């Protein structure tokens, strides 16, 4: 599967687009829509470059979901998981209770598991609470906006 436009819209809303490098809440240099690979503090990009970075990077995250999830997914569920893993990374997915319950076909438990991941650097962040709520709603096929 591939992420849909709705999934990309959720991801863009919560990542935001920064054209100058900045350090995220845990000190990682970031640019564009949450891009972190090869970013240094002096980087600047255009809006088009930010869009291209995201387009190039999304297949990697789609691949993690396609590989690790062993049960059927609806498009909206796939979209929610792509947004989640884009933010948290594949190692967190691979080792998560979220993946365990999902692969046991306990779909109804997944939104609760999504919402548990609301901390960065050990701190609960309001932005992550809002993001996880939106991802959980999307996973359930509900409007997140």
| CATH T-level topology of the domain at 5-14 and 58-139 | Lysozyme
Order of helices and strands: HEEHHHHHEEH
Number of DSSP strand runs: 4
- Estimate the strand proportion: 5-15%
CATH class of the domain at 5-14 and 58-139: Mainly Alpha
- Which strand order does the major sheet show? 1-2
Query: Residue ranges: pLDDT <50 for 5 or more in a row?
Result: none
Average predicted local confidence, pLDDT: 96
CATH architecture of the domain at 5-14 and 58-139: Orthogonal Bundle
Overview of the molecule:
This protein has seven helices and four strands. The chain has 145 residues and is mostly helical. A hairpin with a 2-residue loop joins strand 3 and strand 4. The chain has a domain of 92 residues: Orthogonal Bundle (Lysozyme), CATH 1.10.530.
Note the main attributes of this structure:
single chain; 145 residues; mainly alpha; Lysozyme; two-stranded antiparallel sheet; two-stranded antiparallel ribbon; 7 helices; globular
In short:
The protein is mainly α and 145 residues long. It is built from seven helices and four strands, in the order αββαααααββα.
Secondary-structure map:
Layout: H1 5-15, E1 18-23, E2 29-32, H2 47-68, H3 75-88, H4 90-94, H5 97-103, H6 110-115, E3 119-120, E4 123-124, H7 126-139
Antiparallel strand pairs: 1-2, 3-4
């Amino acid at each position: 599967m591939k992420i849909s436009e709705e999934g990309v819209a959720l991801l863009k809303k919560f990542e935001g687009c920064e054209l100058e490098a900045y350090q995220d809440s845990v000190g990682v240099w970031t640019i564009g829509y949450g891009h972190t690979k090869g970013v240094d503090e002096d980087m600047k990009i255009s809006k088009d470059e930010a869009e291209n970075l995201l387009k190039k990077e999304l297949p990697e995250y789609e691949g993690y979901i396609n590989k690790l999830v062993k049960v059927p997914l609806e498009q909206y569920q796939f979209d929610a998981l792509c947004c989640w893993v884009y933010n948290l990374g594949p190692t967190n997915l691979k080792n998560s209770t979220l993946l365990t319950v999902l692969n046991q076909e306990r779909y109804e438990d997944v939104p609760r598991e999504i919402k548990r991941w609301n901390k960065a650097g050990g701190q609960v962040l309001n932005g992550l609470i809002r993001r996880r709520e939106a991802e959980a709603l999307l996973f359930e096929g509900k409007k997140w906006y």
